[in-house]
């Protein structure tokens, strides 16, 4: 989890170890979950491919993940032969392809296993290995198939009754308890090999169908058959075209790294960056783009959203079940989607929410805190894929979900989506708070039973709840205005919003986490939930709430510049919203800290592993996504009803260039800057209807016909 490199096509993901004696390819499918509607399950690891090559002590070894093409490559020399191995996960074909080639004919001999994480029996059909089974917990059916194609030499099925006796797995990390299946495919003197893997389950995101669809056998067979009948070069070209159509929408240049430093392997650069405080803008760019790479690889329309580990979990009892945590984590995963031009990849999250609602409604009404008559629904902190959840209730969880549902409209301005999906969703959650808010004698409205995650007492009026409800009401008001519907109810919601208990400033100038002024200035708790209104909310801004804006800084300074991975990532976003680019940059550096700790203890030693996976620790993908969003937030903001160019540019990035940043209101921005100042900005109207653009304290109205763009320069803002 710390050194292998991830690939994925959305649903099917794999970690590639890059070994030469026996290679390990650990794979997952986003739907393989235990659990039921009654009991939240765990995300499961699917299986492994092992390729025994016995190439011990190779020379000229190089391992790379090219995120510009989404191709992983290993190359080395062994006994005078140059070997090359390429792997990619194709979304158009829904398969993983691994290709082994060499510069001499007949140079590949060895064995291949397909191994299942739930001990399904592996059978061979021709040169295809098949593992089909059913999870004991929850009953989900699943299947994986691996086709081995060769040119030159021969391949044949082999069995070893007692399992292989030699040390095939010696030196393969994480296989201490693994037992290889008896059936394998042997290859002898092959010139090249192509491996094609598909895997799936019978999960469907629909409680009416009891979450079950067809047995996956047909689909998996067809995917492997189809891919196997096509030239690898075609599969690769289709994959790259599909991937780049997403990846290339957003480009970033934060400066140039010195050539000697840029020549180092990434893990070494990371160590130098941590210890010697090197200036390495290319590494920062790579890290920002890596978040997008991981989102494209783990979140495609039609599939489930990225969980705590994306689709890269290697255990059946993963940390926090590798689940959907509703009190920051699942949301953070999707912060980069809209601003970095991957709005369509936000849909798996929204579709997931929608699929869970029927059961969430039932569970909410069954609970004594809410009662059988409450309208709407909310969620617990830990959530699976069958509607239910576990651990404490997270009362404003559904309202936070609704923010994502709204933001997808705010960026896209897609009215049909707003009408059909977003508006009914947001309105139902509003009705939950319409029923739940408690009115005090002075008319103030409070959430009755809040818990600031995961910190302090359960009590009324917790700032986290109040701010998220404020955000929900604001989003509802704007949604109903955009559709021109429900004017009366809108007025009622506006009235409720104005009576919500407001955020307070406490005795040391801090923004209070609770209604009672009990915040401890020495408290460095990882959650900073009471700043929700600063980010990702929009209640606290320099212009509208200057005193709260200052109080947020006091709070954030006291909380410190450390924390778990995701906590550091959130702080990048907070400081960007506070228009302090240098502090945001400091937080980015603090997150980009080399961590080699592979333990699973809860700690606040956040950072990144050699493979640039975010360390909670252990690996948790939210920090990767949150930091990508943070970089975007430093360059453009649009939560105040206008487009703000370079609101929090770091002095470490004096010269740079970005293209394809998206802004709320349906706009897209390209920018260049020099010496810390904007040189030009292109604002494209993708689907908007008029906006304003701010740079350096000046706000100007901009009208651009749809599909057209304007170029703005510093002169535009000085007129
Ligand atoms: C939240 C956090 C933990 C961890 C877990 C998955 O509850 O408090 O730090 O990130 O989610």
Describe the structure.
It is a single chain. α8 packs antiparallel against α9 (415-436). Helix content is 30%, strand content 27%. With 719 residues, it is of the alpha+beta class. The longest helix has 22 residues, at 415-436. Mean pLDDT is 96; it is low at 597-603. The protein has 16 helices and 35 strands. Among the domains are: 5-247, putative glycoside hydrolase family protein from bacillus halodurans (Beta-galactosidase, Chain A, domain 5, Distorted Sandwich), CATH 2.70.98; 323-502, Glycosyltransferase (Alpha/alpha barrel), CATH 1.50.10.10; 656-717. It has an eight-stranded antiparallel β-sheet, covered by helices on one side. Strands 1-2-3-6-11-16-15 form a seven-stranded antiparallel β-sheet. A five-stranded antiparallel β-sheet has the order 18-30-31-32-35. A hairpin with a 4-residue loop joins β4 (33-35) and β5. The protein binds alpha-L-fucopyranose. Alpha-L-fucopyranose binds next to loops.
Q: What ranges have pLDDT less than 50 throughout 5 or more consecutive residues? A: 597-603
Main sheet: strand order: 7-8-9-10-17-14-13-12
Q: Based on CA inertia axes, which overall geometry fits?
A: globular
The strand count comes to 35
What oligomeric state do the depicted chains represent? single chain
Which molecules other than protein and nucleic acid are bound? alpha-L-fucopyranose
CATH superfamily of the domain at 5-247: putative glycoside hydrolase family protein from bacillus halodurans
Q: For the report, how would you describe the main beta sheet? A: 8 strands, antiparallel
| Secondary structure: helix percent | 25-40%
Gyration radius (Cα, Å) is: 26 Å
Q: What's the CATH first level of the domain at 5-247?
A: Mainly Beta
Round the mean pLDDT to the nearest integer and report it.
96
Percent range for β-strand residues: 25-35%
CATH topology of the domain at 5-247: Beta-galactosidase, Chain A, domain 5
CATH architecture of the domain at 5-247: Distorted Sandwich
The total of helices stands at 16
The helix-and-strand class reads alpha+beta
């Amino acid at each position: 989890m710390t050194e292998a490199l991830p690939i994925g096509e959305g649903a099917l993901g794999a970690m590639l170890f890059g070994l030469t004696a026996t290679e390990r390819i650990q794979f997952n499918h986003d739907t393989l979950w235990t659990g039921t509607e009654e009991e939240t399950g765990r995300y499961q690891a699917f299986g492994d491919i092992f390729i025994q090559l016995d190439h011990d002590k190779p020379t000229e070894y190089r391992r790379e993940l090219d995120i510009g093409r989404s191709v992983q490559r290993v190359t080395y020399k062994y006994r005078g032969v140059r070997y090359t191995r390429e792997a990619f996960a194709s979304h158009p074909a829904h398969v993983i392809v691994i290709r082994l080639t060499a510069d001499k004919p007949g140079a590949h001999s060895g064995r291949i296993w397909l191994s299942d994480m739930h001990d399904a029996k592996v059978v061979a059909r021709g040169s295809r290995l098949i593992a089909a089974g059913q999870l004991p917990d929850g009953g989900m059916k699943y299947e994986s198939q691996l086709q081995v194609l060769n040119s030159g030499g021969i391949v044949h099925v082999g069995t070893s009754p007692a399992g292989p006796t030699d040390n095939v797995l010696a030196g393969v990390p994480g296989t201490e308890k693994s037992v290889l299946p008896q059936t394998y495919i042997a290859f002898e003197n092959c010139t090249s090999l192509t491996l094609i893997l598909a895997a799936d389950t019978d999960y469907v995101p629909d409680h009416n169908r009891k979450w079950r669809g067809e047995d996956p056998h047909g689909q998996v067979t067809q995917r492997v058959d189809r891919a196997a009948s096509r030239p690898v070069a075609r599969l690769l070209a289709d994959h790259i075209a599909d991937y780049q159509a997403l990846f290339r929408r957003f480009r970033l240049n934060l400066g140039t790294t010195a050539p000697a430093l840029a020549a180092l392997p990434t893990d070494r650069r990371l160590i130098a960056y941590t210890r010697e405080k090197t200036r390495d803008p290319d590494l920062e760019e790579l890290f920002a783009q890596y978040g997008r790479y991981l989102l494209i690889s783990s979140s495609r329309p039609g599939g489930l959203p990225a969980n705590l580990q994306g689709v890269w979990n290697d255990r059946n009892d993963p940390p926090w079940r590798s689940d959907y945590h509703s009190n920051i984590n699942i949301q953070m995963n999707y912060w980069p989607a809209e601003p970095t031009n991957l709005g369509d990849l936000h849909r798996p999250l929204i579709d997931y929410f929608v699929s869970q609602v029927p059961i969430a409604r039932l569970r909410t009404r069954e609970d004594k805190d809410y009662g059988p008559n409450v309208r709407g629904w909310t969620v617990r902190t830990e959530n699976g894929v069958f509607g239910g959840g576990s651990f404490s209730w997270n009362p404003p969880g559904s309202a936070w979900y609704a923010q994502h549902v709204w933001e997808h409209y705010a960026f896209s301005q897609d009215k049909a989506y707003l009408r059909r999906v977003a508006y009914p969703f947001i309105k139902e959650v509003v009705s939950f708070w319409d029923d739940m808010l408690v009115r005090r004698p002075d008319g103030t409205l409070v959430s009755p039973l809040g818990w600031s995650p995961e910190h302090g007492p359960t009590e009324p009026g917790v700032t986290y709840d109040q701010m998220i409800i404020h955000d929900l009401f604001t989003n509802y008001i704007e949604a109903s205005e955009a559709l021109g519907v429900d004017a009366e109810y809108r007025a009622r919601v506006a009235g409720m919003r104005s009576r919500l208990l407001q955020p307070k400033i406490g005795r040391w100038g801090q923004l209070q986490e609770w209604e009672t002024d009990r915040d401890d200035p020495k408290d460095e708790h990882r959650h900073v939930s009471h700043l929700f209104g600063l980010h990702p909310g929009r209640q606290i801004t320099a212009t509208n709430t200057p005193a709260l804006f200052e109080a947020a800084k006091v709070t954030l300074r006291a909380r410190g510049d450390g924390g778990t991975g995701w906590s550091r990532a959130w702080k990048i976003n907070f400081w960007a919203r506070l228009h302090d680019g240098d502090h945001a940059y400091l937080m980015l550096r603090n997150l980009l800290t080399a961590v080699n700790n592979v333990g699973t203890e809860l700690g606040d030693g956040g950072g990144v592993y050699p493979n640039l996976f975010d360390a909670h620790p252990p690996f948790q993908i939210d920090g990767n996504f949150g930091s990508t969003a943070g970089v975007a937030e430093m360059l453009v903001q649009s939560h105040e009803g206008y487009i703000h160019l370079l609101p929090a540019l770091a002095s470490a990035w004096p010269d740079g260039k970005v293209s394809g940043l998206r802004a709320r209101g349906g706009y897209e921005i390209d920018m260049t800057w020099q010496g810390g100042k904007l040189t030009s900005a292109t604002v494209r109207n993708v689907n908007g209807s008029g906006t304003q653009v701010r740079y350096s304290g000046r706000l100007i109205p901009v009208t651009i016909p749809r599909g057209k763009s304007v170029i703005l320069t510093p002169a535009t803002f000085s007129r």
